[in-house]
Amino acid sequence: MLIRTKKDWELPESAVTSESAYRTHNRRDFLKAIGLGAAGAALASRDLLAATGGFPAKANPDFPASALKPTAEEFVTSYNNFYEFGTGKEQPKDLANRGWKTDPWTVELTGLVNKPVKLDVNDLIKQAGGIEERVYRHRCVEAWSMVVPWDGFALAKLVALADPKPEAKYLKFTSFLDPKSSPGQSSGNLDYPYVEGLRLDEATNELAFIATGIYSKPMPNQNGAPLRLVTPWKYGFKGIKSIVKIEFVAAMPTNTWKAMQSSEYGFYANVNPKVDHPRWSQASERVIGEGSTFIPKRQPTLMFNGYEKQVAALYKGMDLARNY
Fold it and tell me: Is residue 72 in a domain?
């Protein structure tokens, strides 16, 4: 008889919102939410499905939907940071009607690899073995949090496709560059294209994930379509959106926020309640969608965002206050 031992961070099913509750919006509602009218619904549905490998995704039994209580979908799709389209939290949902297109989309795997390749996102997903669902905590460096049901595939599968050479120690992720379609890029609120990075051992950790959707639906543009990095033990700014290139390199890449303000944003960005941001405490967090506007719910922040047993070994012997 096969007995599966639960992960240490999994919660009992009694603590989770039912699947039917967080999947109440049908595909027509979703298309409306991202700004597509009825006339374009059929075409958009086909294109979005093609770009993400098909839904609903099968839940990975090691990362079940019963592990955590997902934040209401309306908050996840309307409260996020995507500086390419502005610095406000409530990102526009009609990006598809503003000239920015995520289909077709290609991703380049390059650098110190034995199998460099440039693939359409469809082909990449197929070669990665399709998509699965995982529910993860999400913690922003600005001290707010939510829980997101992501659809996608393990980053380790992408690493295996590229077959890195022994000298490859880091992954450098680069997002798109299209100032004509993204007002944030044309305004110069950051240095673009947006860049992020991981150590190779972080990238192959069981939690590292490439998301192609949320709530068993294709990724909305404002959430980082069609491919977004998810590392749930790190602050959200590590989750680079709309990836176009992943380069395997020997030296630590300089990520965008560290380049902009190194005293406030480091390379590792591990969630750590004991290491404050220079301008605010990280000991607790505001839970999006919980409590009221005037009295939002707050909860203590967990070390590595609750994934300490899965990732602490990656940083054994490191000074986490210095390597923030």
Answer: yes
